From TrEMBL:
Enzyme class: oxidoreductase
Swiss-Prot/TrEMBL catalytic activity: (S)-malate + NAD(+) = oxaloacetate + NADH + H(+)
Record-given protein name: Malate dehydrogenase
Gene field: LOC102606140
Biased composition (Low complexity): 1-16
Organism: Solanum tuberosum (Potato)
Record-annotated active site: 205
Ranges of residues in domain Lactate/malate dehydrogenase C-terminal: 175-338
Positions with a binding annotation for substrate: 109, 115, 147, 181
Length: 341
């Protein structure tokens, strides 16, 4: 039964790819590398990317455990070739020729732990991995999942600047999980089909820095100000909700893997020339006075084609925007300082 379900999912995925004009036999050759593939996010993300018909080569890397994950995923009957790498000495081979690099590597959150508590460990991991990216695949689109994203993306930018390879159009902080949560929570409250929901989420990727723009949500719904505030709070605290529900045994791994796969798919579509691919992401930006900011981004063959403006905000959202800026500014500066230390 389980095998039948996977075959059905793979068949549906391939069919969807053909409907988009990317049948497996004619799609461009695209290599995706996942750094941290044996972890709690990395394993389900590896599965989801194996199901993506736009991927022809999937390189799975981690410090240990990758051969088993690679062998397991390689048995799935979809287009991509699976390549497994373990240990620092194989990192270069994992990265060579990559079009998209996804970084879920790092330690997970535990009960009572904020994203900022993760900083010292995950910041060092991201700094090391980005140093290798700059050397082996400097033109890849880099999708940073490792928390705290508000700091790890600035760290990555400084590493690439030092190496002389920085391209602001090719570095992304993956904030898609905030969008996924906002869509799900909004659909439940508004009693609409979640598949039809669009909710932009701007700012950053931690607590109060996450600002869902429910005033711009579609389909529109006549929700009270109390309901909007509750939805905003739940979206901001979504990660904590999962950490507490897992009672110290994990964090948001499955939903984060799904969100990471959604954003990576958008990057691949952009690289392949699909028009009008828009997702929210934490990128270098002039939308506000902060150097990095999450907002809607149009993706294309060079990565970021356009960073879109915020649009009309409600008074509540304007207040939220001003409230998030000091914390986001501090997190960005903390990352830059770490990169230069």
């Amino acid at each position: 039964m389980r095998t039948s379900m996977l075959r059905t999912l793979a068949r549906r995925t391939s069919t969807a790819g053909r409907r988009r004009g990317f049948a497996s036999e004619s799609a461009p050759d695209r290599k995706v590398a996942i750094l941290g593939a044996a972890g709690g996010i990395g394993q389900p993300l590896s599965l989801l990317m194996k199901l993506n018909p736009l991927v022809s080569r999937l390189a799975l890397y981690d410090i240990a455990g990758t051969p088993g994950v690679a062998a397991d995923v390689s048995h799935i009957n979809t287009r991509s070739e699976i390549l497994g790498y373990a240990g620092e000495e194989q990192l270069g081979k994992a990265l060579e020729g990559a079009d998209v690099v996804i970084i879920p590597a790092g330690v997970p959150r535990k009960p009572g732990m904020t994203r900022d508590d993760l900083f010292n460990i995950n910041a060092g991991i991201v700094k090391s991995l980005c140093t290798a990216i700059a050397k082996y695949c400097p033109h890849a689109l880099v999708n940073v999942i490792s928390n705290p994203v508000n700091s790890t993306v600035p760290i990555a930018s400084e590493v690439f600047k030092k190496a002389g390879t920085y391209d602001e159009k090719r570095l992304f902080g993956v904030t898609t999980l905030d969008v996924v949560r906002a869509k799900t929570f909004y659909a439940g409250k508004a009693k609409v089909n979640v598949a039809d929901v669009i909710v932009p989420v701007v700012g950053g990727h931690a607590g109060v820095t996450i600002l869902p723009l429910f005033s711009q949500a579609t389909p529109s719904a006549n929700l009270s100000s109390e309901e909007i505030e509750a939805l905003t709070k739940r979206t901001q605290d979504g990660g904590t909700e999962v950490v507490e529900a897992k009672a110290g045994k994990g964090s948001a791994t499955l939903s984060m893997a799904y969100a990471g796969a959604i954003f990576a798919d958008a990057c691949l579509k952009g690289l392949n020339g699909v028009p009008d691919v828009v997702e929210c992401s934490f990128v270098q930006s002039t939308v506000t006075d902060l150097p990095f900011f999450a907002s809607k981004v149009r993706l294309g063959k060079n990565g970021v084609e356009e960073v879109l403006g915020l649009g009309a905000l409600s008074d509540y959202e304007k207040e939220g925007l001003e409230a998030l800026k000091p914390e986001l500014k501090s997190s960005i500066e903390k990352g830059i300082k770490f990169a230069h230390a």
